[in-house]
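The methods section describes the discrete structure representation at length, but only in general terms. Each protein is reduced to its one-letter sequence and a matching series of backbone shape codes. I believe one specimen quoted in the main text would settle the matter. An entry of this sort, consisting of the sequence and the corresponding backbone structure tokens, reads as follows.
***
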Amino acid sequence: MLATVLAACGKASEGTKEQAAEDQPLAPEVSFSRGAGGSIVTDLGYGIRVNAGSSLEREWLTAHDTRLPVDLKGTVGIRTYYASGARYSSGEYQYRTTITLVPKDSLAAVEVRFILFDIWGEHTKTLSMTEIVDMPAGKDVSFSPSWRLWSENETEEFYASIGYIARVRLRSGKVFEADYDPIVAEARKMYARFSPEDLDPNRRPPPDSSAAK
């Protein structure tokens, strides 16, 4: 009789543990890391600075999608720079970043995008970089792309970015694409009118959308 009771209690305990495990929420496939993106001040040289009187630091958010065969290392984002021109040419404003990819499989190409927001929380543009190069599994690889920035006003008002991996091609030929819903949801926390179409880097192109690398 006692053995029967103990066995029944054991089964009930196992059932409780199984039910508890089922009741626990699953970890999200897409998570976001956050960090400070450095000063909002842009140094032009010769003691001239954009936003010289501001102590604000920019915001960086980075999406990490466990379904993809590659991840962005840490929290990355966009900064503004002024590249001085040569003797007879003017300089230019640039968006710049440095990213490190962590491949889980052998990759042939990857596209990384950055959604940009101004100081008022409005979406201004989406930047994209595509790298077509062999990337072995388990070996970190870094890139430092830049994009031309078209005005001092844009430099002055740029504030935050959300970085994410948009598409990946394996050496085998298989293509993966991001889960865009969590990214759109996160972007709407900054700009309520953000739409899935705003993820497209060609939606609001500047006069010359080529990226300088």
